[in-house]
Design goal:
Radius of gyration: 11 Å
Low-confidence stretches: none
Structural class: mainly alpha
Order of helices and strands: HHHH
Largest sheet: none
Strand content: under 5%
Helix content: over 70%
């Protein structure tokens, strides 16, 4: 799991932006869940689970903006 987190963190910016496409944004939700499990953060796991449904509707846009501004999705470092 730590390898998955490391690989996602080291992706090029263009690939991170592509992963923000509405149907593919679920990958960032899985990333949040895995990161929460590794860190032992219940809040992070819940955010990851809740990110799945709105990710298709509007959360992809939030991830897109966050990645453009900071280089990583929002709510991943709790």
């Amino acid at each position: 799991m730590k390898q998955f987190i490391k690989e996602m963190d080291n992706l090029p910016l263009l690939v991170k932006l592509i992963l923000c496409i509405p149907a593919i944004d679920i990958i960032w939700a899985v990333y949040r869940i895995v990161k929460g499990v590794v860190k032992g953060s219940i809040v992070q796991i819940i955010i990851g689970i809740l990110w799945i449904a709105p990710g298709v509707a509007f959360a992809w846009l939030i991830d897109l903006i966050a990645i453009l501004l900071t280089g990583k999705p929002i709510l991943t470092d709790l």
